[in-house]
Amino acid sequence: MTPAHLALVQWLSPAFPVGGYAYSHGLEAAIAAGTVADAPALERWLGNLLDFGAGWQDAVLCAHALRGGAAEADDLARAVQPCAERLQEARDQGAAFARTVAGITGRPLPARPLAVAVGEAAAPLDLPAPDVIALYLQAFTGNLVTIATRLVPLGQTEAQAVLHRMGPRLHATALRAAEAPRDALGGCALAGDLAALTHETQDVRICRT
Known about the structure:
This protein is an all-alpha fold. It has one domain: Orthogonal Bundle (Urease accessory protein UreF). Helices cover 66% and strands 0% of the residues. The protein is built from eleven helices and no strands. Helix 4 runs antiparallel to helix 5. The longest helix has 23 residues, at 129-151. The model has no long low-confidence stretch (mean pLDDT 96).
């Protein structure tokens, strides 16, 4: 564990002020519809996001930004958002992340969607790309597990067991994404995208997305 690793862990911790607790990535709508009603359903939902949906897309975008392609990845990250709320989620969290990292490091960082902002900020740390991507995905998945803990609801141990079982999948996704070309960005986790669209018109809601 190096100082660079510790810096990245700090940036991706729940304590870092990006407001992640306010965003469910459409999961709140899936819980309200009964699609995600227990731990196995949550695990399937998260697995689909990592394999086919926004988790995979974020991993590829982060890898692209790490390789110096942040400006292009910024445009792509905005283009792949399926609805206004998801665009807001990526944009607002990314802006908060870049602003805070800039404030504590003195490096000027532009506001970009979160996955791209993380990749651009982490590039000078000179860490292996799979490490950066895996820690990003851990933070992304951990936030959704926290949402499910409150809204399903799940017990703390049961929820953390889901996150623990996701570990090998997070690692494998990070390894694939680190070497993936830009053309691998496509995703097809339609249930997650439709849930995000549904959330935009949900009458009663706790999360912003």
